[in-house]
């Protein structure tokens, strides 16, 4: 029975020990040299309130040894011991075991507790003491590594977060031990020949402890070895004076002896420098070879010079961001090799594999081991914990002029442990992600890389292919630069294809025809642009990858948050978050005005990923974004011209809402910003067979196109609308209206035969359909076109027919337009009285109904009539009033016309300066609008005015 009982006790004890070390062999770390904390397998443990933390600390300082319960209670509570102190202690121990999830082996024995762990591996204080003791038993050369590692364990004031008499006593004692270890390390480094490297550190230490003669001696010796003997002697005088003033004594014998040896320039004070371990200090030169084909990037190199040169007191970091293949590593290496002489103590380089097809991102521990190896640290002296390794690394590079290049970083966590703590070091970080916390918390200067400008892209091709070949095929080179969009990797792949002798024109034709497929490579992912870009997607969520793909097929060269929300069907907040993630990954660029854009090749790659989405998902997204743009354009059109007939498209897809626009100015601004996207939307709608969307977009954009003189856009939009109308035979109005607007657009561009054919067809269809409104509108357009072609009589005939139709329809606004058109034609025919009456009647109707654009048009006509009647001052009044209204409306097309008209009465009144100023503004507008014939005519009027002024002066 006793044997069985003994076996059970042994079994329980063994199980207790087993589970105390962790059921799964979990690694426990306990921190006392800083804020009291603990981790299990790298995960933080919630230690509970301050007393409970103190219980852990009281056990940990004697890890592996039995601590009597009474002593534990005294350590934790002191004079404030609770009435049931032991029970409370037991309760805290139980809660600690639970917090550690079975990984804390606290064993209760006889009258106390023991923390049964490998003390040196588990408790930082015990490891500190063991390393310090090991150093004291070693030779000088063998002391540096353990002392450095020991001091690296300190993370602030010891036992932070707990209080009490015992804590205060222990805290003071350990601080003294740390102070002694710092002294010991400094003495060892000085005996090994260091000096200049220690000056900054010892300067701060001497300021904190001005009466400590040991520190004073160390500082004096370091200054002397740094070539600052005068400063060393001056510091001795300061210490001597301070000792006399504060303590009434002289420096001790050791400090006086050092002072005399410095005065005597004792050569024994400056032994040759050696590295830890007694060897010559290694100078790592790890930079890869400079990029052979590097070209351009002068502005970026200058920005690196500015960011990384001439400052002190902080670690200088430049995070070079950009998409895969944009040239980040090349730029970093070019700068590093150009400035290698600035870093005589060495250059460290590591590829962190942040974006790699076959490897996971490198752990910072692996990169750190490589750096410590390069700095000559014996593997047996490298501490196991990353924090201690980082501290050792910072100690080794302190005050050394070194460059550290951290290439291809994926996360800030990879980078931070590898940052030195010395202002003498420079760090270059490259990565596709922006690493915002590196910027926010560590002051990194971010440098975003874009595509190469045209000249630098040509220079890259010339470097790869030879200047003669590039000069021989300039047109093909221009095509290649355009098709590659200045993307360095794409240019390099193209050059690799062409270097075999394939004519550049053939390479360009293949790239234009096959696109991204020509930049792919089956066997070498690093030589394939699609593969390189694909690596950027690995860290994205499924939702972010979907947004990326949909942006690749969305119409337009750029986009906005509201459009992306419609495209993806995501709420604005989630859409913004996805865009931010793509921007962080350098797959998207945020531009001024809240717009987002992709490089053309990135966009092409995104489109290939969109085809992995289900067809219905992709099509539904396109429908939503088309409806968003269409209905916003319709709302904008209503603000620009409220009197225009309301032709509403079908309702938008569920959940799609037009972008809110406050007024006509906001509508014009939105249309200007979205102009390329709206035309692209129309093309995309045609490809998707959404013919009504195509037609209604042409209608919604018509006023904007006319006012802004976007004549080529107008003709393209209405051609698409006419094609769409042929697919909608159930609505003949759509076809006749498209012919009418297309005819007018053709006439504006001087396509007379095409314009006549479309207008004739529009009128014929309107008559066939017995559509009086369309007949009237077409006659009015024919009025403008016929008058522009110089046939004022035919124009007047069309104007009167339009007027008859409008009067029968009872629409005063349209009637006013027809009256003004008839008046204009009468003026052209010389019948000024009739013209004045017709335009006067038109103006009365337009003012009564507050039709601002109609007023402007009629006032312009009245200005012409007054000018031709010789009443030039009245003409000025009419023209200026018309001009003010056109400017208010933002009608740039008519502003240019009225400015030209306004110059004539100024000239007739001898107001040459006003005429010249007015015509000069008109000339600039005509040129901006691509109206070459109008510009040439005004240029002739200005020349005649100048000649007239010159003649008058003679």
From TrEMBL:
Keywords: DNA-binding, TPR repeat, Transcription, Transcription regulation
UniProt-listed PANTHER family: TRANSCRIPTIONAL REGULATOR REDD (PTHR35807:SF1), TRANSCRIPTIONAL REGULATOR REDD-RELATED (PTHR35807)
Pfam families the UniProt entry points to: BTAD (PF03704), TPR_12 (PF13424), Trans_reg_C (PF00486)
DNA-binding region as annotated in the record: 21-117
Domain OmpR/PhoB-type: 21-117
Name this protein carries in UniProt: OmpR/PhoB-type domain-containing protein
Family listed: Belongs to the AfsR/DnrI/RedD regulatory family.
Gene3D superfamilies, A to Z: P-loop containing nucleotide triphosphate hydrolases (3.40.50.300), Tetratricopeptide repeat domain (1.25.40.10), Winged helix-like DNA-binding domain superfamily/Winged helix DNA-binding domain (1.10.10.10)
SMART domains noted in UniProt: BTAD, TPR, Trans_reg_C
TPR repeat extents: 896-929
Organism of derivation: Lentzea flava
Residue ranges, annotated region (Disordered): 266-291, 930-954
